[in-house]
């Protein structure tokens, strides 16, 4: 049996086969079933949505959480600085870390449904945990090379002047406030919530990149921004491939711990 090929209506609204009137709601003649136009022509086309519209439509929570984190990082430090003076850097950092911890607990409680599957204990045994730890060593090597070249070109006056030994008088304090707490709070906020929702609105790699840029912004370091984007991309990739937050949290904590130990060895 030969296949019937649709032919365009050239009969002034009538079927070219049986001359019956054609209903434009159908792609075939209602009398003889002869197709007269491709079916695709009556299907509504999906409107194009750019990335911004897709995020605002399908992942508005990601914007809300980022703005919330940004306010938490800026407002407490500003208030403490105004009340106690600009020299009380240790109090400002501790207060901001405490505020960020409280905010993360609140966000994790409100959005527990989004985090529950990502905090499955099985994620601790994921092979991506080992990949994360090995990748962390590579990131540290990149950081040493990048910042070494950067400060050699720009001069020592561009080096950060924060002395964590003056803020945290013990190694345990530095490990807690520089390694463990940021590793938990930042991963829950960025990879666990923001990236989780962006995956709904954007392709995976684009969602990871956007999250990484936002992650870089909250570190308020223009010179180190490219490196923070790279770190965020790696942690976001771990979250995407493993489906778990544990490889990200442990890799993030390990990264900061190695940085602390390196700084201690040179101080």
Topology:
Blueprint: H1 51-58, H2 60-84, H3 89-110, H4 112-115, H5 127-154, H6 164-167, H7 171-201, H8 204-217, H9 225-242, H10 246-266
Helix pairs in contact: 1-2, 1-7, 2-3, 2-7, 3-7, 5-9, 5-10, 7-8, 7-10, 8-9, 9-10
The portion of residues assigned to helices is 55-70%
Largest sheet: none
What is the succession of H and E elements? HHHHHHHHHH
Rg is: 28 Å
Domain tally: 2
What is the end-to-end distance? 86 Å
Please state roughly what percent of the residues sit in beta strands, choosing from under 5%, 5-15%, 15-25%, 25-35%, 35-45% or over 45%. Answer: under 5%
Count of DSSP H/I helices: 10
> What are the low-pLDDT stretches, counting only 5+ consecutive residues below 50?
1-11
Rounded mean pLDDT is: 83
Looking at the structure, what is the overall shape?
A: elongated
Number of strands: 0
Q: Which structural category do the helix and sheet elements fall into? A: mainly alpha
Compose a concise summary of this entry:
With 267 residues, this protein is mainly alpha-helical. Helix content is 66%, strand content 0%. The chain has two domains: 1-45, no CATH class; 54-266, no CATH class.
